[in-house]
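Escalation from tier 1.

The customer reports that the assembly of three entities below gives different structure tokens on two consecutive runs. Tier 1 could not reproduce it. I'm attaching the input and our single run for tier 2 to review.
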Amino acid sequence: MSKSKKMTLSKKQNLTGWVFLAPGAILIFIMSFVPMFRALVLSFKSGVGANMKWSGISNYVRMFQDTVFVQSIKNTFFYLLIQVPVMLILALILASILNNKDLKFKGLFRTMIFLPCATSLVAYAIIFRSLFANNGLINLLLVNLGILDQPYAFLTHTTSARIVIIIALLWRWTGYNMVFYLSGLQNIEYSVYEAAKIDGASAVQSFFKITVPLLKPTILLTAIMSTNGTLQLFDESVNLTNGGPANTSITMSHYIYDMSFKYVPNFGYAAAMSFLILVLVAVLAFLQMKVGDKRD
Amino acid sequence: MIKLRKFGMYLFLCIVSFISVFPLYWMVSAATNKSAEVISGRLIPGTYFLENWKNLMAAQNVGRAFGNSFKYAIILTIVSLIVSSLAGYGFEIFHDKGKDILMSIILLAMMVPFVATMIPLFQMFSKAGWLNTTIGFILPTISTPFLIMMFRQSARSFPHDIMEAARIDGLSEIRIFFQMFIPTMRSTYAAAMTITFMNAWNSYLWPKVIMTDSLSQTMPMVVANLTEGYVTDYGMLMLAVLICTLPTAVVFFCLQNAFAEGITGAVK
Amino acid sequence: MKRKILAALLASTMVLSLVGCGGGSAETPAADSGAAATEEAPAADSGAAEEAPAADAAAAGGDETLTVWCWDPAFNMNAMYEAEKVYQKDHPNFKLNVVETPWDDVQTKVTTAATSGDLSTLPDIFLMQDNAFQKNVIAFPDVCMDLTNSGIDYSQFAAGKTAYSVIDGKNYGVPFDNGAVVACYRTDLLEQAGLTIDDFTDITFDQYLENGKKVLEATGKPLISMQAGECDLIMMMLQSAGSSLFNEDGTANIVNNETLKIVMETYKALKDAGVLTEVNSWDEYVGDFVSGNVAGTINGCWIMASIQTAEDQKGNWAITNMPSLVGASGATNYSNNGGSSWAVTTKCANPDLACDFLASTFAGSTELYDNILPSGALATWAPAGDSNAYGEPNEFFGGDAVSAKIVDFATKVPTNITGAYYYEARNAVATAITNYINGSDLATELQTAEQTVNFNMQ
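Tier 1 run:
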């Protein structure tokens, strides 16, 4: 008797859960999966403009023969491997410093560090281009300090152009990720830290022993989001370097966009390339979930 | 020693803040300079602000665009927070194998570049007659995998024992959500609100596809208009960009205490 | 249990009703301003027409309103407003609804509408970049209307200009602004090197290089800066000798293009000598001449509007024709860069009106061209150049009658072939020049460029 009552209770709860998530899930289904399915169908077609014909998997074969696209995959992974870890660590450090109760001007610091991601893309692209211009502020400083003999064209050399993109990304998104950590830190009672302090734990120790483990769900969230964001990176490639020099800083999304709107449009091919991004992000996200999504 | 460490901490924060704010300072000062001065790298504020203001108001309908952006962003933020947090809560609090799998599937929805799904989506919306409407603007981004996941992750720290107690007291599930979950998770809601508002405010690619008349133009469109001509007036452009940046900054400033200052003790 | 479901339902209805409100409120401002400003009314009209094609046809009878997309308030939008005034003299009921839409957005909207097969969102007339014209007509044959027999006299336009919008012998566009190349110089800086503007008129690139070295020595400033990774100058040089990246039959013309080789070598020689300097972005390019870091530039004549923002340099600038290539057959001192043309969409409910409007304004009214000249919009329509307005001296450029000069240049521009794959080829050549400047072998780079273009055309 009591057992069957428990069964119905869990069934009831189960059902309630479904009702809660239904509106969101249904919207995502209609607004994302229906178009995604159509795009998937499209990826097996090829042709110019609106005139598409079935072409089997030829688009998927084609992308690996496309030297520019292969280059864009390499570039994108270069950004991913360097920028995401650096950014998340920096954001974590900033968040734990700003979570310190005794710190003064916290609100001011937080706002200033967050502001970059609120800045409109247009402004920030113009500013970064002018900072790294041949006669820009950075060159002026480096030449005056005697580090460089003559101005260096940062955006027209492969390595420096990529580094500028990474710097720009760090500048723009570190504060954004910090916000999630700050809000996640609210769920850790401050007394835990005080207790640790009394036990003689250093700031570094309590960072690794308390902050990181307890923030794990949030860290997972930001890791997946940043991976996704970087693999779909578009704005910086278009606005800072325009993919150059000689396509050595172009990203996958930038190339897909060009293929859709700048070049003679082949939406089948563009869709196929998009699904490669999906597969790449999905694999990485799956690995991250495996590592980080255990409920203890 | 402690003093030294504290000093180091402040120094670090000051450097990071300076780097973060410098480009914004540049933007503000550019808005007060002539185009030719901006482009030749002048860093000091000038006296051309009023001229830029007049030029901007004459060139673009900033008031209407600002109003539109504001309307879309506010509606989208409110609806989106309700729908997504309900879903995130449902996924975590009542989690089972099926829901966990569904969550993974939902995450897939954000992994395809928007360029690929934009055309099918446009077809659906133009058939439905939603071009140039608020619903057309907001519908695709009301429910996002990102927000759902964010609420799911933070619901993990929602204390189960309190929930059990409430259930025993006879509180309905929906009331537990509205009366207990939302107040407890205020910091998450504040963070989510900031981010959603910002994304809605800055969204560009989708609006530019479905908004085809000048009445529905948004702030990012106005900024884009200013960059397109043969001659770019950089002073005026920077002023427009500044106006476009302010609301997000204000929203952040107002909400930050809610997500960064502990509200511990409210429930725990 | 029941109560809980009810509650959940209630919550979702609440959400839905919120959404509903959103939809409702969007319509209100549209209706409001439609009533307030008659100019905006067509927006509401075309909205209604989308839903009911019958209404569309009905509207065509009495309504003489056309919707236009273009992007620069000071320039082509202004031109449209002036054209509206001119046309209204004979057609008092005629109205234009000009929607400011940046070119990138026009392209995105046209692509989206055409690919999804729903052209109802398109306007009646839109402005298209000349370089994108072939691509759009070939990729989306349903979008642009064939204007060959629309009553527009194409013989009165510069041939090099009209060619951009001719596909398979049919005219799809009405030429608008002039992209004739001008070489602009700072006469005060030239003077320091003992040179005058005459030393730069009707010259070759060899002479340009020699002069450039003198200027560099005397002033420390390069003659010209160019945006790295954008091969504007390369394309201008190529067209000045009537050469293109494509053959008549549409195949790529890169590896066996002798003119292109000369262009690449000339460009590298200028760069190596320091006479040409490469910058990272458009802002930096404009900044260079506005703040006097370079002694001149070569570009489409529309660049003069940007030059004139440097008010302190008034009177110190002069324009002339560009240098010609050495050793290329058909080399001239004239070329083209940029420019745009009007296209009429097939969705247009009143094509006769649209054609007549364009024929009697942009292809038939000296008055219009006189009115828009102050905004810098120079005609490619020959009769306009005879007007007195074009002989007016321009004080910024040393009192020269620059407008007449440019119209004259425009008639001498050799025709070239854009081809549908223009942007692909351009990007491939930009990659080639970047690598060539950094020391790669020219033949190999051109080979790669041609392969890339061929791959894109498969």
